[in-house]
Design brief:
Chain lengths: 627, 238
């Protein structure tokens, strides 16, 4: 590769950097003021592309395109304002995990709304009127629109900088980023400030999306890809720093562009196809930056955040009535193969439910009592599933061996990723776990020779006697009960106390001699191993495993299960996983718009039942006893 | 001007204030005194609406403000300077002042309240005049304390809640702070301050409420307290 070609790629990267910057900077501003990670930010970006497409094609011409881009930014800003007023305003005091889930629900709803309005096909917009040509540079043709985009990024950066530095609005935004309560005590109406910041952030995302209409087709998958990119950029740049966001956008876009530019490089002994690295490149950059600078390039450690969420309730040992009902449920489940003789599907559903229970309980172990909100628990499920499946495929291992190996592979991964993750907390931890999960997913997806790529591994059936649904069900039941009870036991052991102490106050826990990071690291590893059990069981239950079963969606499903049941109790994840798995198998398969349905369920949950199902039941029981 | 009746407040499940009643009349400087943990700061926070769970009536300028948000309370002319100052560290002195800015206002009888501008505040706090563009993070404790008071005054308040104005600052600045409070009083402002130091309180206050365990144990004029060694020994000296 010549120097010229590299320079050309670098220039090209600048235009992508602008796109990344527009979506990331809004996310960063919103987080700074409201402390909410807006997962729906990528959806606003996607909406921007679709709306700009409609303007460009229906109005047409220069007005439809350029005017459309401005109109789109305004429109998406209004939508953002509406979201803040209708949803976010109600959950500013909710625990962080609820905020993340509520905005994730918006992702699902917006995606289905877009599907309903614009249809499933990719929509190609027109090219930019006035900038259709190309500029000759370094002996190559660079589209003038790309050049324009590349210049627009720094322009917007400067404008935003001026707004923040020179206007009263900017001063209030910066003050709110540091201490919103004090701002209120000085007579500033934060409601208005929050709404306007959210609208501004949304408008920037919409603007970024709209600008893409001349480069890329409007596509229903851009919400999550744009979100992932924005996450990485914000975290690498440092939360709340707009200059950091631009710097990070440039670094990531350049790394990607150069990976594509390098193509396959021969290192003598082996050759590496760099263009295949693009999927993981940004997450690798993020992992490296977070390890070296935990708060991003230009970010600063969050000064003691004045927490406004309610403190966690302590968990309590099971009451005798709970133990009794658990025994009854267990007995019923043991008898299920006989009870369900007329409808064999019930056993398949039962296996799904039990696997979901193992997965949810293992996630709850670190997310609830551990306080580590992992957004990448699917990684350990995936390591378990692929570990087991590949052992069978390549080594002809027996099922017993494969099921023992599954948690070990997951344990190994969790030990490695957990070591980095427990060094962070809050949203940074959420994002790093997400990044690691993305790396696992991308590796599985792209290492075709080993994993079969997108086709996955097939033909992983259990040998006799487990080839019967009832025996496999019993096996799953035994492992599920074992997982639930042993994790429960751990929580009431000194180790569990230390873990909760570390969650509630890391400083005080360390002062009494608890090595908080070590305890949380071990907890992370244990949860990963148990997640691996679920993965291994899943592979044999389905007979196959593919990359999409371990995608980010599974991590989110796990969180929904935990919250659905109620994160503050130990029965919560079991109930939540059951309800979720049954719903998924029955209701959601009936409708094309299952995402909107799931999103609606989550929103209802967050707004109406913040304690989850078990929390709501306990409140009812408590009220009945009190009266 | 400010009447508090049977005010109770909780942090989580723990009750901090018990049926506390007090009054500040127009133009008066009133001190809340008591040892650490007696509930002085919580009283001021509860009046300002900064304690999530509270009960009781708070009447300011003829209006019940006990159900209002902090920003609404501030906009009715009640200023608040917190104990830990809470300066916006990333903002300069001028920017901190600007954040506190509100429109001029009048007392209930129509008389205008004192109007503050950065220029006027710089004559009141000459130290601040020397560093208009310094970041909050780069200021000493005493300078931050002055800025915190100045920032509150930018809202042109009718009454100021001043939490421990003498705490953690150099003796010279303590004296300056006392002079400032007296100057604010002559401007017509009312002040409710919390204080542990009886010498400082004597310099500035007209009346005193003495707190212990979230309850008012004694109240009277400053002169009465100065002579009442029994109350001082029981509730104030360490």
């Amino acid at each position: 590769m010549t120097l010229n070609a590299l320079l050309f790629q670098a220039l090209n990267g600048l235009s992508s950097a602008s796109g990344l910057f527009f979506v990331a900077v809004g996310l960063s501003l919103i987080f700074g003021v409201s402390r909410i990670i807006n997962i729906a930010h990528g959806s606003l970006y996607m909406l921007g592309t679709y709306i700009a497409y409609s303007f460009a094609t229906h109005v047409g011409g220069g007005l439809g395109f350029w005017g459309g881009i401005v109109a789109t930014a305004v429109l998406v800003g209004l939508i953002g304002g509406l979201i803040e007023i209708l949803l976010l305003r109600r959950i500013y005091r909710a625990p962080e995990l609820f905020q993340l889930l509520a905005t994730f629900a918006l992702v699902l709803v917006i995606n289905d709304a877009t599907l309903a309005i614009w249809g499933p096909e990719d929509l190609f917009g027109p090219r930019a009127p006035g900038l259709r040509g190309a500029v000759e540079l370094l002996g190559r043709h660079l589209p003038s629109y790309d050049l324009f985009l590349g210049a627009l990024g720094p322009v917007v950066l400067v404008i935003l900088h001026m707004i923040l530095a020179r206007t009263r609005f900017g001063r209030l935004v910066r003050a709110a980023t540091q201490d919103r309560e004090m701002l209120g005590a000085l007579g500033v109406n934060q409601t208005l400030l929050f709404t306007s910041v959210f609208a501004l952030g949304a408008a920037l995302a919409g603007f970024g999306g709209a600008l893409q209409v001349a480069r890329e087709p409007a596509n229903l998958a851009t919400d999550l890809t744009a979100l992932g990119d924005a996450f990485v950029v914000v975290v690498v740049g440092g939360m709340g720093s707009i200059t950091g966001a631009y710097l990070a956008a440039v670094i990531i876009a350049e790394v990607k562009a150069i990976c594509i530019g390098l193509g396959t490089v021969d290192f003598g002994l082996f050759s590496l196809n760099f263009s295949k690295l693009t999927l993981v490149a940004e997450f690798l950059v993020m992992a490296v930056v977070l390890i070296a600078r935990p708060y991003g390039l230009l970010g600063r450690a969050q000064a003691t955040v004045r927490t406004i969420a309610e403190p966690e309730e302590p968990i309590r040992p099971a009451s005798s009535s709970l133990t009794a009902s658990a025994a009854v449920v267990f007995a019923l489940l043991l008898a299920l193969p006989w009870l369900a003789r007329s409808s064999p599907y019930l056993l398949v559903l039962g296996i799904d439910v039990l696997i979901a229970v193992i997965f949810a309980v293992s996630l709850h172990f670190i997310a609830g009592p551990g306080g580590m909100h992992s957004f990448g628990h699917a990684a350990y499920f995936g390591l378990g599933a692929y570990g087991a499946a590949l052992l069978v495929k390549w080594c002809g291992a027996t099922m017993g061996l494969a099921l023992i190996a599954a948690p070990l592979v997951a344990l190994f991964g969790a030990l490695m990723f957990g070591w980095f993750s427990v060094r962070l907390s809050g949203v940074y931890l959420a994002m790093l776990t997400l990044a690691f999960a993305q790396i696992v997913w991308a590796t599985v997806f792209q290492w075709e020779a080993l994993t079969g790529g997108s086709n996955g591994v097939i033909g992983i059936w259990p040998p006799p006697p487990f080839d019967q649904a009832n025996t496999y069900f019993w096996l799953t039941l035994v492992l599920a009960v074992g997982a639930v009870l042993s994790l429960r036991r751990l929580l009431f052991a000194p180790f569990g106390y230390a873990m909760r102490a570390g969650r509630d106050s890391a400083l005080r826990a360390e002062a009494i001699g608890i090595d908080v990071k070590r305890v949380h690291w071990l907890a992370f590893a244990i949860a990963g191993a148990v997640g691996g059990v679920a993965g291994g069981l899943f592979a044999f239950a389905k007979g196959s495993i593919s990359p999409e079963t371990i995608h980010v969606g599974r991590s989110i499903d796990g969180l929904v299960m935990v919250l659905l049941g109620g994160i503050q109790t130990l029965t919560g994840p079991v109930v939540g996983a059951t309800v979720f798995a049954v719903l998924q198998d029955t209701v959601m398969r009936q409708t094309e718009y299952w995402r909107a349905l799931l999103g609606g369920i989550i929103l209802l949950l967050v707004l109406a039942f913040p304690g989850g199902i078990v929390g709501a039941v306990m409140r009812l029981v408590g009220k009945a006893r009190a009266s | 001007m400010l009447t508090v009746e049977r005010l109770s407040a909780w942090y989580d499940a723990a009750q901090i204030l018990y049926d506390l009643s007090l009054e500040v009349r127009r133009g008066e400087v009133v001190a809340l005194m008591g040892r650490n943990g007696a509930g002085k700061s919580t009283t001021l926070k509860a009046i300002m609406g900064l304690v999530a769970r509270r009960r009781g009536a708070v009447c300011f300028n003829g209006e019940d403000i006990s159900r209002r948000q902090p920003y609404e309370i501030a906009r009715r002319g009640l200023g608040y300077t917190p104990e830990d100052r809470r300066i916006f560290a990333d903002l300069t002195v001028m920017e901190n002042l600007d954040v506190g800015r509100q429109a001029p206002r009048r007392f209930a009888d129509g008389a205008p309240a004192p109007v503050w501008t950065p220029e006027r505040l710089f004559t009141l706090f000459p130290n601040l005049a020397e560093m208009p563009h310094r970041l909050g993070a780069r200021m000493s404790g005493g300078e931050q304390q002055m800025l915190a008071v100045a920032r509150t005054l930018m809202g042109n308040p009718l009454l100021v809640l001043l939490d421990e104005p003498s705490e953690g600052i150099a003796p010279l600045i303590v004296e300056q702070m006392a002079n400032t409070i007296v100057a604010l009083k002559t401007e017509g402002l009312s002040i409710l301050l919390s204080e542990q130091n009886i010498r400082f309180a004597r310099l500035v206050s007209d009346r005193v409420y003495v707190l212990e365990k979230g309850q008012i144990r004694w109240h009277g004029t400053m002169a009465e307290l100065a002579d009442n060694h029994e109350v001082q020994r029981a509730y104030l000296t360490v």
